[in-house]
Design brief:
With about 110 residues, the chain is α+β, with helices and mostly antiparallel strands. The chain has helices at about 5-15, 55-65, 75-90, 95-110; strands at about 25, 30-35, 40-45, 45-50. A two-stranded antiparallel ribbon has the order 1-2.
Length: about 110
């Protein structure tokens, strides 16, 4: 019976026998990588591009950072309701009023 260490050794030996896929050169950083590692090959419009896993991750992160969300402001009616709540319910506790505004904006912009 094989020990877990023997099974791991056999698994690693089989992995070393695998034929590696064609290597690609990253257009951004010139690193060579295979499809097994990740990355992507495709086109930016008509430009052929290859991205290694690291550059692909960075590019997707940058695109997410550039995806600005539009924030909606409060309507006059909502401001009036909050103003009345602040005076009547909270008795002038500004931090509670600010928290209420924050919750309304969060619900409108998610």
């Amino acid at each position: 019976m094989k020990t877990p260490e023997d099974e791991e050794f056999d698994r690693m030996a089989k992995m070393q026998e695998w034929k590696t896929n064609e290597l690609h050169k990253c257009t951004a950083c010139s690193t060579q990588y295979s499809e097994d590692e990740g990355g992507i090959e495709g086109n930016f419009g008509i430009l052929p591009m290859n991205f290694c896993p690291t550059c692909l991750s960075c590019m997707l992160d940058m695109a997410e950072q550039l995806n600005f969300k539009e924030w909606e402001g409060l309507t006059n009616e909502e401001l009036e309701q909050l103003s009345n709540k602040w005076r009547i319910i909270y008795g002038g506790h500004v931090s509670d009023f600010a928290h209420e505004i924050e919750e309304i904006l969060r619900s409108k912009n998610t």
